[in-house]
Structures
1.
Amino acid sequence: MIEQLIPAMVEICGQDGVVTDPADLRTYECDGLTSHRAAPGLVVLPRTAEQVAAVVRVCAGAGVPFVARGSGTGLSGGALPRTDGVLIVTSRMRRIIAIDPDSQRAIVEPGVTNLAVSTAARPFGYFYAPDPSSQQVCSVGGNVAENSGGAHCLKHGFTVHHVTGLEIVTPTGELTWLGDGTGAAPGYDLVGAFIGSEGTLGIVTKIIVKLSKIPQMVTCLLAAFETTGAGGVAVSAIIGAGIVPAAIEMMDALSIEAAEAAVACHYPQGAGAVLIVELDGPESDVRRDTAAVRALCEQAGSTEIREAVDPAERAVIWAGRKSAFAAVGRICAAYIVQDGVVPRSALGPVLDEIAKLSAESGIRVANVFHAGDGNLHPLVLYDDSSPEATEAAEELSGAILDLCISYGGSITGEHGVGVDKSRYMPKMFSADDLDTMQLLRCAFDPGGLCNPGKVFPTPRLCGEVPGMRRGPHPLVASGQAEQF
Ligand SMILES: Cc1cc2nc3c(=O)[nH]c(=O)nc-3n(C[C@H](O)[C@H](O)[C@H](O)COP(=O)(O)OP(=O)(O)OC[C@H]3O[C@@H](n4cnc5c(N)ncnc54)[C@H](O)[C@@H]3O)c2cc1C
């Protein structure tokens, strides 16, 4: 079936915009979640929104599933292709269409990288606030789909707080706008509904983002502690004092060791944990809050505190944190990047319990995370040449998510559900909740062709009537799916 679509796709995207060679298709077989792989049936590389719409119309007409892909840095398998489907890659849609300092807005195409927006806005005195650690590579379209966060989301908010309009191609191939760029359009907040929908409601082809004024002053504190627990006490004290730093990040001893080996960040030797606390804003506020944070860290038992104001010195402090995920690859080739959330007040006990799980299983876990948001990123290290070790790591990783749920947290803070965590959705949401979400999905995608098999635990069909289920789901009854 998929071969029959090739002539139409070539007509739309040009010969060089269609990938059919099996070896080339494998380039796209996974995102950052490399444990899930599937070579796409076909890849297209459109250059315009109209081409995306035409591609989707062909797929919809033929009943062929399609998946959007930005830069493929997602960590939950959201851009995992379908072997029987078309992968629509936005990497050729990289125009920054407008930077408008007067309205503090920029209009960008979905393949533009996150950092490129700030780079383009800087000469006007502005930046784009959401800053995932992958920002040099990841696309704004991917950020919209995942509602991506980053180190500075504690104060500045997530993608959803910085997007005011979206041009999308609906799953039936219609090109339309959601939101008008003001952020105050009347009617349902469809921009809000679309952001974080993980590519299941359509394909973004233009994005209107808010630009933020570059702050007058920025300071960065690096505070060392003997334990992550002591660092956690400092985090609670800072937030409890009513201070909202731009970022509060924590790294434990194992992730510090990895970062040191990778980028020689020279964090204090022998530290059991470090906190990176960045403060930004008007100079007088920043000076006052920096002094207060310093005092609170000292009270929580910090063994050493360094302060950087100069951008180059701040970059050295951040180098360790920003490189941490990749750096862990130097001490162990395979690891799972977990993403869960707990209430900030529970950071200490949850970290203790993760350490206990790690000790009991004999599996090393490095912790590097957005402490201010309670957004944990435990990195579970394992030997992927051993199926038993792989399974044990996955079990431990799942146990960490159970822990997050049991403390009233969430199975994902910013990396999304994708294929990786769909099985955990029923642990957080009732069947009625999931059915209600399905109503929204089906309103956008009645044919169920847009990134199917992601986010939801079972392939519920749009024809099913949501509401109280009578008896087991037909797929459960036939043994094809499992209810957890
Ligand atoms: C080292 C590293 C660090 C990271 N740090 C962070 C972090 O700090 N914070 C954070 O939030 N995430 C982080 N991530 C995760 C990842 O970078 C983000 O989820 C990012 O937004 C994905 O963007 P992408 O362009 O790579 O999207 P992809 O991986 O290509 O796709 C992600 C999802 O978006 C959908 N999608 C892509 N483009 C479109 C489109 N145009 N329209 C509709 N749907 C689309 C895909 O179908 C898929 O479901 C990190 C990843 C890595 C590898």
2.
Amino acid sequence: MQPASEWAEKILAGDVRAISRAITAIENHSSDAEQLLKQLFPHTGQAYLTGITGAPGTGKSTLVDRLAAVYRKRDERVGVVAVDPTSPYSGGAILGDRIRMQGHAGDSGIFIRSMATRGFLGGLARSTAEVALLLDAAGKRQVLIETVGVGQDEVDIVRLADCVLVVLVPGLGDDIQNMKAGLMEIGDIFVLNKADRDGADRLEEQLHAMLSLVSPRDGWRPPVVRTVATENRGLTELAAAIEQFRKHFETSGDRQKKHIDHWQNRLLELLESRLLEKVLHGKEGQARLRAAATAVAERKQDPFSAVEDLLKGAHVA
Ligand SMILES: Nc1nc2c(ncn2[C@@H]2O[C@H](COP(=O)(O)OP(=O)(O)OP(=O)(O)O)[C@@H](O)[C@H]2O)c(=O)[nH]1
Ligand SMILES: [Mg+2]
């Protein structure tokens, strides 16, 4: 057996070390990872991906932890990926991991891993998507992707999920109007966490008012689910809401078209990152970019010709 297929076999069997090694390869955009994912792809398509996003400290990690526990009770295997685009070392996410690990120690049915920003090309959304495929192949039926923040990176990351949870808490800046419009659009379910705090009712009213302005997508009106993650309250209801959304997606509208749309987006992202990688490969490529930028800044070259030259250099034009 070739090493790569041996590696794939191990992953299909859920071998933790093989999975960890694959995630590192994915993070480094190594060609091994691509070979591996090609072999694994036929074994994917079974996992359900739930993305969890929201401002820092809203309780995402606690929610993920408790939701994972709900799934484990049903004997569903779970994969958790915590992505922190804000920190190169993923301090917050790793800390969250340690907390989570305590509750699930010794449970081989759950796999938890953090990822942080790598490389100047970003590519974090792509790495996350690849890790999700890997966990899918490894037999995790529920894959939970936690990402902190409210920026474009996070939107890109959660967009790959089948179901997106947006977490809000009472009293955070108080004004829901401050919430990024983008988040409002991507949320399939709104989680009102820390519902034990003052202002939960008011926030729920505001949320409903705001959601009533948004026209339903494929007949789905995002529900608001109240939770107190630390006390394990509302988690069964949250799991039920996710299940309901899943059923709705499977039965409403043109399911095939939605899957094709999804892969069209993924292919576009892959194409984009591949092209960038080709053009700006390694230190040399970065030096070329810097030199081109310098030439344009000094008005020695126009930006259009500079881009043409970069493309020519990469043999993609
Ligand atoms: N009162 C209350 N506190 C909560 C609740 N859920 C989480 N917390 C607390 O809120 C703090 C932040 O929780 P995390 O789960 O780490 O939040 P997070 O959104 O993952 O944080 P980052 O990953 O750093 O953005 C912790 O101290 C939790 O114990 C809740 O429902 N009620
Ligand atoms: Mg967290």
